[in-house]
Design goal:
Number of strands: 6
Strand order of the largest sheet: 1-2
Number of helices: 20
Distance between the termini: 33 Å
Helix content: 55-70%
CATH topology of the largest domain: Fumarase C, Chain A, domain 2
Strand content: under 5%
Length: about 500
Amino acid sequence: MRERIHANISPEVVEYIVNPKSGPIMFRDFRLMMEINKAHTIMLCEKNILPTGITIKLLTALKEMEKEGPDDLTPGIDCEDLYSAIEQKLINKVGSDIGGRMHTGRSRNDLGSTVTRMAIRENFFKITIELFDLLRSLIKFAEDNKETIMPGYTHLQPAQPTTLGHHISSICSALQRDSERIMEAYPRINLSPLGACAFAGTGFPINRYRTAELLGFDNIIESTLDAVASRDYVSELLYSLTMVSITLSRLAQDLYLWYSDEWSIIDIDGDIAFSSSIMPQKKNPGTIEHIKAKSGHILGSLISNLTVQKNLNFMHCRDMSVESVEPIWNALKEITGIIILTKATIKRVKVKKSVMLDRVYKNFSTATELADILVRNHNIPFRTAHSIIGNVVAKATSKNLRANDINTELISNASKEITGKPLILSNEELEIGLNPSLNLKNKSTTGSPSFLETKKLIDLNKEILNNQESSLKLLKNKQDTANSNFKKAVNFYIK
């Protein structure tokens, strides 16, 4: 195949371009290339481009090579890549007059593009299954804590009472949008470039739709140039994975703070913690730190992918076909780690409910409801009510009082100071305003952290997840059917 060049590949090229494709990557690509080879051969026969006898010999030899595996294939000095090594072994088995015909009507360009799409399609299913499993664990955690009262924060300062269930189910809502983005990428991933050849198609009467059908693609990429010149579906999936990793890094950061000694509202099991080599008292949140950090690797993969593509000519080239795709494999490994580590962590979190509730009483996060009561029950403008309660909180904190130490006298004095008139609240009003449980029950806004609305949000999370899992099952069933039909097509020629 290197007749035009009349030189072996240099050791440098072998070391830095060919060899990195060995190992597990070669096993994956070998398996997928063999599937493509069989589908292409069947199509050539059906279109009378190959005689049946040659087709049978080719498919028989390919089946033997599949059983033997890629161990004896040695891309390198003699063969530029795995494809060349496969073709050479095939020719060694059946001769060049037969083995040399398999590549009719295609190029390494469309073959490589097809391998990449099939590999990413496989990973799509693995990642979504893991992600949905994590979502189910998070939803259960939220449901178990739908009435676990805790302080809610803005600007990392105590704001208003919420529940742990509402906080986690809200993260689930964000994560479900992330998973939706991944699902939406599938129709653009599952398109066949096969038959585009180098970029200009072929004069042979091939059937691109047939090879797409055999290999489980939903359709073909219409433009033969676009089929080999574009990898935007990789960027799209990388962006979606980046968003998943960022959402989970934010959850991990919450857990990181909550576990700190200063917050201390959760604990973690020892089997996900790390010890200190010098300080015997330490129980470090190792998994949480790795979850946070790994999102950086995935973000880096996205930036790397986009940067390689920038200013490339719209054509097939190794910059696009190899280098722009390379970051996705590390991102897929890292996102798998993030998802599995998050699932392992959330199952080992111990919630300190009494500490959470005590923190609400300490940090005056019920103050907003107290101001709202002045507006609702006493016809005071909100800005005035805000000033009165702000004055109350300032005086209480200066005296080292807690929120539940506020009494009607403090409020009356603050009102007199702000408006010139005293204001007397009933004990019932004071209780509703300061009791975090009553405070939450009084929330009527759809999607609020009230116990009722939190349950609705959790139920919505469950419904969305069930729908997403059903959609994924349909896609997987379609793939399984295509695989089954493909095996039947192969078995028609070789028993």
